[in-house]
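Exercise 7. Given the components listed, write out the predicted structure of the assembled complex. Treat all entries as one system.
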Amino acid sequence: MLSYLLLYCLHRFNGERSLAAVYHLLTGKKSAQTLQDSKWFQLERVFGIYKTLSLGELEQAAMQLLQNQWIVSVDERSYVLTEAGKEALHEWLVSARFFTHLNGLLYDTVDRLFWYRLSLTVQTLSNLVHRRQFIPIHRHEATLTWVKTYLLSKNLHELAETLHKELHTICSALSEEEATILTLKLTSFTRIGWTNEQIAAFLQKDRLYVQLTFQNVLHYMMKRAERESKQFPILHDMIKNLVKPVSLTLSAQKTYDWLMKGKTVKEIARIRHLKPSTIEDHIVEIAANVRDFSITPFVAEDTKRKIIEAATRLQTRQLKKIRDAVGDEISYFEIRLVLAKAGESSVS
Amino acid sequence: MYLEQRLYETFGYRTFRVGQKEIIEDVVAANDVLAMLPTGGGKSICYQLPGYVLPGSVLIVSPLVSLMEDQVQQLRLRGEKRVIALNSFLPDEQKKRALMNLQHFRFIYASPEMLQSPLWQKALKNVAISLFVVDEAHCISQWGHDFRPDFRKLGAIRRELGNPPCLALTATATEEVRNDIIETLQLTNVRQHLYSVDRPNIAIQVDCVDSVEEKVARVLDYAKTLQGPGIIYVSSRQWAEMLAHKLAAEGIEGVAYYHGGMDSEQRLLVQHQFLCDQLQLVCCTNAFGMGVNKENVRYVLHFHLPSQLEAYVQEIGRAGRDGKNSIAVLLYTHGDEDMVQSLIEAELPTDEQVRLFMAYGNELRSLVEINDVQWRLLHYMVEKERTNAHTAEEMIANLQVAIEARRQWKRNKLGQMRSFLFRSHCRREQIVAYFQQRLEKKPINCCDRCTLSLDSYQRKQTDEPAWAFRGWEEELRQMF
Ligand SMILES: [Zn+2]
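Answer.
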């Protein structure tokens, strides 16, 4: 299962990133490089979806792919897929339902908070309705407070009925297996929720498969709850004030604040006692992550067009190759900026 | 009579357990108290009840965040609202509110790390603290089995807070450790309440077998025949997973593993499932146990040799908290000591770590691998040697001496564990003697050196229908 996930990432990276980049991506490292990678190579969905992964496990998976001759090494620790590898990936993707709604980058950490709220609300309601005492399934203080405050303002029986209906609607739209996983993970007055491993044993599936399918279900739920407040009033309440910060590193956030105040790269570098190149790194990160951020002040339209043309023609995202094609008068900074922005729209 | 009445009104118990009343009387009279009560002896009542009698707040220092959270939840379950746990995970808004209204709380739980923060110290100085409780007080002593250097600062912290009366609680402390506790916390005119570490309802057995394979076979046999729920202690994460898979593959139902390497949500699920009898058996490292307040654990198996008798006593003490008959079985095979030896080494700072620490200080963590235990110990030793050493070379030499002394001390502890295994003397008497106590009376099912029949621990036939999944729709309907 992990090897297929790796195969998928390697396919997208197309030999331009090493195994370490896959590791940072799957574990959700909040660095400028990883955030950009996930956009450039359209790997947003798998960002941070396997936080407990170890580098050793990943290396082992790569070994297996090499043995299967599904990948070949092009550079030290970077690989491309063989024809057999592409075929295997294609076959796997057809069956990989859990990719449908998965969006690791968009829902990173928010999905966990949403799940805390949902599962604790279900546990609390289920026990209160049946007049049982219970120990909360989570220890997350902020969630405990949220659930307590939320339930205080509502009629319990009505709430239980509505939430039941909402979950029923969600489950009905899911596959039998997905609905089973979701319900087994929930805790009620009669049963503590199951671990991924227990569900995997029950369904005779892989643990990672269960984990990803569950995340896919969560993301699907969140998407609907966000948009359809009428149909899902309670789920909507759970998600609506969950902060969704733009994923910027702290230092880039500070640079962003100065930019918004109208400072130039040089001025910010002076104020923050940083090298101008560091500030440029920040700007690339911001361009990749803040949708409304315009790069026009930093790159002329003409330059931008040249870069995109070169990247498309050469079918690459490697900076060196693009630079060689467009010429020295265009800086690496400009190329990176354009690629960071382009990640959102084009590229296939 | 007054205390009994409070006990009934607040906690719903008619009578005190052994020692509780005497301890509480001394605590309420504002004496410094050192109390040793066996695990499961109801330690928490000793400070929770005074919380309803004394005028001010009770500050409880505890080594583990999870332990504090469990306590807080149990108090809340009982309807107590004026309770808070100070930890670094507190959301900002609650933290702000807590800082302003700290005196409002009846029970304030805190980790030693939090007590060192100037912010909380300042807030605590405005609180009338009637009682300063140190739970698991053996963590103070470097001669205890779970040494936490941060605990050594509690004496100074207590002084900062105006020397409120102190209650130090532990289940397992040898005389050496008890003296260390008294000295560190600067307890004056201390009243010591030392109750027997013996748990008469836990029978003790040691099985010496020929190989690891035979151990596994024994475990399987016990899991099939003994009345659950049970706990199996192993000394590594890999073994915990392996054994759980093995047992499940052999048809044992309701078995799971637990160790520090799992993500916290999965860990909590396993703990809750065990508490609710949804699981019958947990294969775990010593990360499991502290704070798992389960009354009806019927057996504890040790698949590996504990590194010292204190740890062993603490772990078997998780059985039979309800007072009913339970059994502890330790499985030993030749060579198990090697595993403990390597665990001992893994907890001591290496020469390389010492040298790098002297050269680069805290940077060390990014240079070489160092685990938390090594890190804490190194820090503690450096701080201790700071006044004795004048040059870096002297410091390194002193540290090496201190580390070697600790290695010898640990080997000595292992030696005592071994002699517990091989002496042909009553195991129960050996345990109490280790804590400088005497055994009053032996139970009928004492140990494999005296008399012990496994019959009374066999699984009873039950016809409880197994839980069956009847589809998500039915499952959802049942929830609400
Ligand atoms: Zn005996």
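Discussion: The first strand of chain A starts at residue 71 and ends at 75. The two ends of chain A are 24 Å apart (CA to CA).
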